[in-house]
């Protein structure tokens, strides 16, 4: 690659890979930042910010995610139903009991840029409770995330 020319990843040159990440005993925020980097392609040398150069990520064991401190009871997720005065609040424990995948999906989605490209990138994230997933045909590779030292 010539370093005197600007590099833009073309759509034809994209070669997305499939990765499996086990969320068992991983801290939610640290897991979400690393998943967001893989989805955007920032972990690759061919990163181009204006194109989708990332990989597909499968997160398994979403129900075994870990939160530090008192976040299980103190961290609140809010949603608005659309009716006047109907702003609903749920703690992280209530969200986990309702749907364990929502914690990881929401954390990763908030770490992506707020534009049309992020909506396309977010579709490449697959989150499952338990260790079974539907993407065996893609032959995903199990990767171990870097530890925060």
Structural features, described:
This protein has helices at residues 28-40, 71-74, 92-98, 100-111, 116-122; strands at 18-22, 56-60, 76-80, 87-91, 125-127, 141-142. It is α/β, with parallel strands linked by helices and 149 residues long. Helix 1 links the parallel strand 1 (18-22) and strand 2 (56-60). Helix 1 packs across helix 4 (100-111) and helix 3 packs across helix 4. It is globular. The model has no long low-confidence stretch (mean pLDDT 92).
CATH architecture of one domain, by name, is Alpha-Beta Complex
Shape by Cα distribution? globular
The SSE order reads: EHEHEEHHHEE
**CATH fold-type name of one domain:** Ribosomal Protein L13p, Chain: A
Average pLDDT, all residues? 92
